[in-house]
Amino acid sequence: MDWTNRLPKLENSSVTCIEPVRGLAGSAYVAYSRHRLEDHEPYLFRTDNFGESWRKVGELPAGAPVHVVREDPANAAVLYVGTETGVLVSLDAGLSWGRLGKLPTVPVYDLAIQESYRELVIGTHGRGIFILDISALGVMKKEVLGQEAWLYGPGKIEQGAAFGPNLLKTGQFFQAPNREPSAVFSAHLKKKPGSKAKVTVRDSMGRTLVDLKLEPQAGFQVVRWNLTALQSLTSGKRTLRVAPGNYVAGLVVDEREVMAVAFVVSGRTPMGANFDDEETTIDMSDADERSKAPMDGPGGKESEQP
């Protein structure tokens, strides 16, 4: 078989990743790295004719060699690129790029997408593994980016039973915390709000359960609610999980609700959960505050990742 070098200017370069384009025969992305040749520029190309010709994909930020590229299986317009300094995301098939916010400045050597959970798994060099909920990106379209503000909700959340710490112990027992059920909300702000922005969660009777603060910046952000509320009792107040039912999340920008989405919490009723007669508010935990993961979309502002 005869081989032809279609990218002669990249001779002696390392091919770090080849990513086929789903549903398009003959289309693929290829990433090159030349950092061992003292060239630290990013090189990402695409072919749509089985490699006969290649075109450069967008204008990636300079000084960050590309290690891996992945296409979102739910939305071909969404690309994730792992570089020497972090993760870049494109919502328009590579025409423009935004940096994944609040991720440490670290080499990202691999990316994997868990399709059933809609999560992006980020493998770094020396800083462990990060996981980001990308449910909203699967439905992102150009029209969304043109809106002043946009909110995406979880749709349906299943609450399961959790085992206590003293159950099922053996002589050699290794314990790790269970994955907490939570509601993840994704918001996109076209421009920086004048004052504040937040996601407000209400129950079926219209009572506010929680205000989830958004960063006052343009771009894409993710906030998480742990499905607990602070219930008033005769002996004081106690944080309990909310009961199954219908809930509404509203995106509030500059004191005005601009969009709302409904979602359902299903599963068994948690012990003591009864908010029919009591006024309830939310007691945000430190874990919930730390779980906020803003991500700057194209034109957004660069930030750090926890």
Characterise the protein shown here:
The protein is mainly beta and 306 residues long. Helix content is 3%, strand content 44%. The chain has helices at residues 142-146, 286-290, and strands at 14-20, 28-34, 39-47, 55-56, 66-72, 75-83, 87-90, 98-99, 108-114, 119-124, 129-133, 149-152, 156-159, 183-189, 197-202, 208-213, 219-225, 228-233, 236-241, 245-253, 256-267, 280-281. A five-stranded mixed sheet has the order 13-21-20-15-16, with no helix packed on it. The longest helix is centred in the middle third of the chain and has 5 residues, at 142-146. The N and C termini lie far apart (49 Å).
How is the topology of this model organized?
Elements: E1 14-20, E2 28-34, E3 39-47, E4 55-56, E5 66-72, E6 75-83, E7 87-90, E8 98-99, E9 108-114, E10 119-124, E11 129-133, H1 142-146, E12 149-152, E13 156-159, E14 183-189, E15 197-202, E16 208-213, E17 219-225, E18 228-233, E19 236-241, E20 245-253, E21 256-267, E22 280-281, H2 286-290
Parallel strand pairs: 13-21
Antiparallel strand pairs: 1-2, 2-3, 3-4, 5-6, 6-7, 7-8, 9-10, 10-11, 12-14, 14-17, 15-16, 15-20, 18-19, 18-22, 20-21
